[in-house]
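USER:
Before I trust my own judgement here, I would like a peer's view. Write it directly below this note and I will take it from there.

ASSISTANT:
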Amino acid sequence: MHETKASATEFVLSHDYNDGGRGYWATFLKDLAARGLPHERYLHWNTTADNLDDMLEYATHSSKLAWGSAVLLDLEAETGCVAAVWMAAGGVSAQLAAETLAALDDGEAFLRERLPKREATENQTVPIAFWSYGCHGPAETSRSIDVPTWADIQGNYPSRVGDQLDGLMSAEYRPDGRGQLILWYGPPGTGKTYSLRALGWQWRTWCSFHYVTDPELFFGRSDYMLHVLLGDEYDEEEEGKWKLLILEDTGELLAADAKAQTGQGLSRLLNVVDGIIGQGLRVIVLVRTNDDLRQLHPAVSRPGRCLAKIEFVPFTPKEAEEWRVRNGVVGDVGAGTLATLFGVAAGDDVFGRPQVGFTL
């Protein structure tokens, strides 16, 4: 009986291969080992590029699949390195290998020049990463959204709300470490979404925005939570930036009986904002809920944990009249939420509260 030994360039791939699209990765690993390249670097950023077609002239392998596209690049002549690059959902990832660290630097510059990073623009768009958990783990989709400035919308809030938002919206505002949780609460239609979009513009230079679409899963799975929290740790361009995690419709997660409803979700949230997990992280968690603060767990809203607790309230009749005059709206707008005022201004019918009792 003869033993056969695997050569140095043979691999056993144990990763899930059922998508049929990992040929580029197997080829990259084989090439890396064959060349004996000692230095590697992983990169990820959100890009404005739509595809990898401009890279095809350097490609030794390319794939276009349902989830995105990938290329294996031989950049030996241009930068002295090889690279596996894949693009999906507005993000680009790359694994580079080279003889020297200088060659890795050249290879990174080569890729970033051809696949520009998505940035906030002067025409008032801000990039937001949308997170979800799927069959292959945490997945990020990036897109830019149109945003207003705070000056554009400030007059659409009652003074009680606007005065509290002023501090957060200031160009000079920076977190001071006294709490990393922001609570925005109040009935639907009071302008929480528009204020969040304005916050994106006001904070664009020092903070990145991450919207968690499935907060129950986020706090229920430690691998998901840590991936989102630590995902930029090795991105030099993101170094020093704060990260804002946006959670919506999380009333049941933060309710007084949250422990019974969502298991460890509440404790994990508290650890993110000021516990062991949160130590040293530049992370702010913004929770938007339609629930009243009195219905939330007291541990969430205790002093020192929140850097801001803002209640979004409807307009009083006097404030509504001032809004009508300021915006040149003809007729009586009554009172109510911001959505109601805009509805009246647009000519929508506003139904009053139904009568209770007996009538003839």
